[in-house]
Amino acid sequence: MRTFLTLGILVGALNSVHALGRLVQPDGSIVALAEESSQGESTLLFNPRTVDSQSWLTFWPKSMATEVVVSGRGYRDVLTFPSVAVPGTRFAVEVPAHLLALTVKGRLSNTTLVRTISRPGVAGQAWVTRSNRSLVIDFPTWRIAPGYSSMLTLVRPAPSPWTVTFSDGRQSRTFSFAPSVLGWDFAPGAWGFVPTRLEVSGTDPRLVDVRVRALGPQTDLPVDAETLLAWPIDAWRSPEREWFTWAGTSVLVLVTANYRIQDDYLKRMAFYVEKTGYRGRLVTDSELAPLHGWNAHDYSAPDLARFFSQASREKFPLNLAENELRDRLVAAGILRPSDNGWEPGTGALVGVSEASPPALRAVLFTHEAFHGLYYTSPEFREGVAEAWNTLSQGAQEAFRSFLALSQYDPLYEPLMVNEFQAYVLQRPAEDWVPFFRDRVLGKSMPRTQALTLLTEYLAAAHTIDALVERLYGLRSGRVSATTP
Q1: Distance (Å, rounded) from C-alpha 115 to C-alpha 369?
Q2: Dihedral angle computed from the Cα positions of residues 300, 302, 305 and 307, in that order, rounded to the nearest 10 degrees
Q3: Which of 205, 234, 347, 398 could form a disulfide with 334 if both were Cys (CB 3.0 to 4.6 A apart)?
């Protein structure tokens, strides 16, 4: 249970104490503290008997702490506080028994501290309470205007593993993050509740900024992979589709309610970019109708620019969804207008559908997301090309034949290289052997030859896996550094 001594009744008693610093004890008594002040910080000095047990010290209302140095015998700890854009936020810090000094950086309205034994806080008020192992932030109940999407944004100061628990008093969710994650958005639309408390724990629970953002109806929602896959369709801004950006990348993600809607946006593009016998040609609606596209999609900025530029030159009648897609790509900076139609900007497009069952959708998104990274990183492309070129001609031909079965154009070498890394990385490393052995090589190949090619594939797969770990902190089968 939270406890907090009402401060208002103490004001008259405090006026009778003439020391610059004051400590209100749990029993209501007041202890004078020596104070040393310099520009931007204040140090309060304690008799070692004044704080006789581990305690919490709360700063006076309208104070704002940015850093606190806690000192005792053989003990010194530096605790930082995040910026929290909520008026009236209260700050408190945990201190050890026999505290000797407290140095506070920030703005102190009064050098009076209130000591409590338990962590302070009042339901419905904004509080930031900090110990050396945790940071707790309490919020008043918050809402945003209708038509907007809310995000609670957390920003870290430095790489290290961290864990956050969000709660609203009735339900909670805990997320763990790899050291590479220096910022993260909690999306109430994805996780089903608006948090009024967050707790960061671990060896380094620091945050530098915490803020609520309201994103307009035309804004692509910035999310990590786990949030994107968790976002329920009934929380979309449109019942047919939702637009996301993969946080930390320049990859735009289109998620559709079903395959028919996905086809409206991307089927013609699939044939134009990747399908054998159709590449480079704008296929008419009547010709497309009986054909199967893909269940998930990925396209580079150059391919998107060629498609829309050719449609413009030929005055080809694109549908409403394709025109919306073009406008979204322009807004995201993936396409730029030019004298000849469109030129590639920065980024890539991937698409998945809610029609895919959750487990399949996660695999498909992993596959497409690695395509997105491939399109947007020259270093990744160079590393994948090097791994592909370690394969013998026989290994490359076997993989081309495997892709040709799905109507990929085996004569388009850049596509073969790109698909090799995506098929490797869409699955965890323990699934590489059955994939290459059973699906790529099959059972008709002589055993000795198959083992030789399998060894080549596995060596290339390990190289690519190490590459994405070095570049992105990711591993094969996983495009998220977040564990919900």
Answers
A1: 51
A2: -70
A3: 347
pLDDT digits (tens, 9 = 90+) for 230-267: 999 999 999 999 999 999 999 999 999 999 999 999 99
**Residue 418: DSSP 8-state:** H
159-192: b or e for each residue (b if 16 or more CB lie within 10 Å)? ebebebbbebeeeebebebbeebbbbbbbbbbbe
- The token pair at 369 is 């997301």
Q: Does residue 136 contact residue 197 with C-beta atoms inside 8 Å? A: yes
Question: Which amino acid is located at 384 in the chain?
Answer: V
pLDDT tens digits, one per residue of 101-128:
999 999 888 899 999 999 999 888 999 9
For residues 80 and 112, give the distance between their C-alpha atoms in angstroms, rounded to a whole number. 20
Q: What is the DSSP string of 290-355?
A: TS---SSEEEEHHHHHHHHHHHHHTT----HHHHHHHHHHHHTTSEEEETTEEEE-S-EEEEEETT
Q: Which of 293, 282, 304 is nearest to 348 (CA)?
A: 304
Q: Note the pLDDT tens digit of each residue in 263-300.
A: 999 999 999 999 999 999 999 999 999 999 999 999 99
Q: What are phi and psi of 23, to 5 degrees?
A: -125, 125
Please state the separation of Cα 379 from the chain's center in Å.
22
The CB-side HSE value for 215 (13 A sphere, CA atoms) comes to 22
Question: Model-level pTM?
Answer: 0.89
Phi first, then psi, for residue 380 (nearest 5°) are -65, -45
Q: Tell me the average pLDDT of the chain.
A: 93
